[in-house]
Amino acid sequence: MHSTSAPHQSVTTAPQTTTLSNIIDTAILRGIARLRVNTDLTQARREQLLQLCRHTLQTPALFTSDNTALTSPIENHATPPQPFILFVSLYQQHRLLACHAIAAPTFAAAAIASTQRGLQDFSTPPNPATIRIEISLLIDPQPFPANLAMIEHSLRLGIDAISLRHADKFAVFKSSVAIQHGFDTAMLLQKLSNKCGISLNAADISTRKTIISRWRSIDFRESFDTRRSLCDLYRGNLLCLQHEVDDAAIQRAANASYQMLSRFIQQSDAPAYLYQQHWQPPTEPAHHLRILASLWVAAQYNDPVILPCIDTHVQRFIARHFHQSACIVNGITDIGINGCLLLLLTTRNTPPFHPYCHALHNYLLRAHDAARGKFSTITTPALSNAFHESELFLPGIALNALLHYDRAFSTSHAPAIAANILPYYQNLLDTRADAILMASWMVPAYTELFFITRLSAYRDFVFALLDPLLNQQVTHNDPDIDLIGSFSRAGSAAVTATLTDCLLDGHRLAAACHDTARQSAYHDAIYMAARFILQSQYTADNCHDPHCYGGFKNSFIDAAIRIDNQQHVTHTLTRLHNYSDGYSGK
Question: Which alpha helices (H) appear in 13-161, and where do they start and end?
């Protein structure tokens, strides 16, 4: 959208936010409508198909316990391709009970027959009141070139359905399969071939015996919200419209996200690092870094239920890893883990932790290489000069920790260090393509330092980090309408939340500097990002696992929920709820 090439150069004014909501909502609704082109699937028609399935569920005469009475010609049979395939899925409390596709000459007949077949999966008829119905209609099959690389490039995971025909075998997956099971394209094809009763490798895919096709997929279901009769789905989820982003929605999402973060922390022996059907403990130094940062965010809520858990975890961590003057994890001493621990301890600021605060503070001061104007990111083993990704994250953590220590103990070491290291990290930004990753920790540090010192160099450094982000945000012109507002093509709410948090600092800084162009540009980017974040959350409407409620998965095809995903999103949603411009009327 906007960019700058010089410090404090004004960005081009963004479209007025009062119209931005209409622009994005129109783009989303048009994108959904494009899926239904040439189908005559009006809202009334979609509702009618759901009602036919509902009537079939509620009519005992249609129920049969003969599991062989109806068989599917769709899977594992040598049949000619159908002009369409219609799946009916039956859910109970978000748990899939049955899913079938029975060939028939019309949509209505296929809906009824598929529902009947689904009923055969039960030994006794289910209570219709507990069942929710979902329909997936697959149309317009388009064969792919028989080349794995081309398929991986062209297939839109979660949006396109996919079928495989090999000799006399045929199988098909709905669009939601990849999303629900976390399959990338190669795994999706492998599972599809297994479903056909064969095993294909890349060479087999290229044979003339194999035809792989993608299908246009139209997905809708009965609403869990009684105010609506049906919900249209995209990539397996309900789409959040821009006008639905308001203070109340943000607060609900923030509360649910914090509760998920709390569940990570309330594990008995140590905070969980990952949730994927069960809680998994940390195993690597990076895991501990993310957990400590997450405990720090949670501690800021002063929750009387969570604070004792945090203190217990901190005490155990110190007992296991603190040695004389710093923490050593797996034989490595770095400013990231020690900086995050100092952030946490200064936020708790209780006397039993003060000796560790002072020791960690002194360690970070020693890690400041004043002669070279930088931080030594790893101090043991002797890798302090290594240039790797830690150069982009850990120095910002250390600087934030020193700022928090200054505030907690009335010292003033951070400003002098910040002035000394700024040229080095400015040079990184100018010379390293991925240096924008520094933003997540450097932006909050130098924003605060600007308000302490009023040095224009700090303001310009923050803007130089933030302005390029505007070009990375997915806009309303993108064909993947669920990505609008995201900073992550993989669908990561955590990445988007992290960068949105930086833009909130940038907006505050722009307001203080009376930079109205940046204020407008940052505000619109924040507003769009909020929509994507809300859409990405597991809610009562899309949560198949009650433990996941309020959570955010790693990506579209990685359903694992990491503690730091929750940390980033919880912190950002809370700040969004307190965002001074608000969302009313936007």
Answer: 17-35, 43-58, 107-119, 148-154
pLDDT at 553: 94
Q: Is residue 15 scored above 70 in pLDDT?
A: no
> H or E segment at 176?
helix 176-181
CA nearest neighbour of 49 among 229, 308, 170: 229
Cβ contacts of 473 within 8 Å, gap of 6 or more: 1, 485, 486, 487, 525, 528, 529
CA distances from 269 to 265, 310, 476 (A): 10, 11, 46
- Closest to 222 measured CA to CA, from 131, 332, 324, 323: 131
Asked whether the beta carbons of 104 and 91 are under 8 A apart, the reply is no
Distance CA 519, CA 506 (A): 8
In angstroms, the CA 169 to CA 192 distance is 11
**What is the share, in percent, of the chain residues with pLDDT greater than 90?**
65
Other beta carbons less than 10 A from residue 342's beta carbon: 31
Mean pLDDT, residues 326-333 taken together: 91
* Number of residues in the chain: 586
CB atoms within 10 A of CB 156: 13
Distance between alpha carbon 239 and the CA centroid of its chain, in Å? 14
Q: Which residues contact 515 (CB under 8 A, 6 or more apart)?
A: 8, 10
Q: Taking a C-beta distance cutoff of 8 angstroms, is the pair 290, 329 a contact? A: no
- Calculate the CA dihedral of residues 229, 232, 235, 238 and round it to 10 degrees: -50
Confidence of residue 65 (pLDDT cuts 50, 70, 90): very low
Q: How many CA atoms lie within 13 A of 190 on its CB side?
A: 7
How far apart are alpha carbons 463 and 79 in whole angstroms? 61
Torsion of CA 399, 400, 405, 411, to 10 degrees: 60
**Tens digits of residue pLDDT in 161-172:** 999 988 788 999
What digits encode the pLDDT tens for the residues 386-423? Answer: 445 688 999 999 999 999 999 999 999 999 999 999 99
| Cβ atoms of 451 and 462 closer than 8 Å | no
- Measure the N-to-C terminal CA separation of the chain; round to a whole number of Å: 19
Pick from 48-62, 360-374, 523-537: least confident: 48-62
Q: How far is CA 292 from the centre of its chain?
A: 20
The 8-class DSSP code of residue 66 comes to -
Separation between Cα atoms, residue 261 and residue 570, nearest integer Å: 8
In this predicted structure, the answer to whether residue 268 has a pLDDT above a threshold of 70 is yes
Tell me what pLDDT residue 73 has. 34
Q: Are 428 and 392 in contact (CB under 8 A)?
A: yes
Partners of 374 in the beta sheet?
Answer: 369
Residue 69: predicted pLDDT: 33
CB distance 484 to 475 below 8 Å: yes
What is the mean predicted confidence (pLDDT) over 81-94?
A: 83
Angle among Cα 358, 360, 366 to the nearest 5 degrees reads 105
The whole-angstrom separation of Cα 189 and Cα 214 is 12
Q: In terms of C-beta density within 10 A (0-12 exposed, 13-18 middle, 19 or more buried), how is residue 182 classed?
A: middle
Q: Tell me the C-alpha to C-alpha distance, in Å, between residue 540 and each of 14, 89, 238, 544, 549.
A: 35, 18, 12, 9, 7
